[in-house]
Amino acid sequence: MKRNLKIVLIKEVDFMRAWIKLLEHCIRNENLIPFGSKDDPKAIRGEVCSRVVLEQSAVKQVLDGINYLPKYGKLFPFGARFIEHYVNEYTLQYIEEQAMLGKEDKRKFTYTYYDRFKRYPTSNGIIDQVDALRENLKKQIESNPAITKCGFRMVNEIKQNFDLLNSSQQKILAPLLQRPQMQKSIVTPKGYFRVHYDTTGVNAIGYNLTQFLQALDSAYTFEVIFLGYSV
Of 34, 122, 161, 222, whose Cβ has the fewest other Cβ atoms within 10 Å? Predict the structure, then answer.
């Protein structure tokens, strides 16, 4: 029996509408899960694959939780406390604590996403997909030195080797090491970056500054803390 699994993308700016669309998709598009041998095929119900993208106000609804969804009461217990708990599930400490719990312990999950990501079971043993990702990226970069993701690396190399340059080279490159002259600056919530920006004029920002600051911290957390790259 072949699997006929279609991935459906649901994009919404409202959390409740996204939730309703997802439920409708699950109800209408349930697929059989084949198993058993070729001579004795079997199937059970219940396989659905979908991808939900929450945008704009839907993100605020998730962050603010019941304060933003008063008509639904405690149906959606989001907010900072719940988000913090969810983030904690993506730490080594959490999955190690889970591994220590007995099978009958009500706090124990069958598996967590990070545990499956960090310790993925295969027929050849356990694969650490985090390390595999790190090593594959390293090989790609080393095999193609021309790859430059952003200007940070270039600026850091100039800073680290500045004393090796002659005076004329230093004069040309020195401005790259200075902070830009903008109208305002702000430090990201976790303190990883200071962002300089304008609020008026041709260089005025046209995006949500709070979300941008959170995105910077998130990128640093993933690449430096999670993947282990040096700064």
Answer: 122
pLDDT band at 93 (very low <50, low <70, confident <90, very high): confident
DSSP states of 14-42:
SHHHHHHHHHHHHHH--EEEEEE-SSSEE
Phi-psi label, residue 125: left if phi above 0, alpha if psi -120 to 50, beta otherwise: left
> Distance (Å, rounded) from C-alpha 153 to C-alpha 138?
14
Which tokens sit at 35?
Answer: 């198993």
How many Å apart are CA 72 and CA 65, to the nearest integer?
A: 10
- 4, 31 Cβ separation under 8 angstroms: yes
Residues 167-207: pLDDT tens digits?
888 888 888 788 888 899 999 999 999 999 999 887 888 88
Q: How far apart are the C-alpha atoms of 60 and 15, rounded to whole Å?
A: 9
What is the rounded distance in angstroms from the CA atom of residue 105 to the CA atom of residue 178? 56
Give the helix/strand (H/E) hosting 149: none
Task: Say yes or no to pLDDT of 22 above 70.
Answer: yes
Q: Quick one: pLDDT at residue 196?
A: 92
Question: Both tokens of residue 210?
Answer: 């709070």
Query: Quick one: tokens of 113?
Result: 């996403």
198-219 pLDDT per residue, tens: 998 878 888 889 888 998 998 8
The residue count of the chain comes to 231
Nearest of 54, 47, 46 to residue 16 by alpha carbon = 54
Q: Where are the beta strands (DSSP E) in 5-119?
A: 8-12, 31-36, 41-47, 50-54
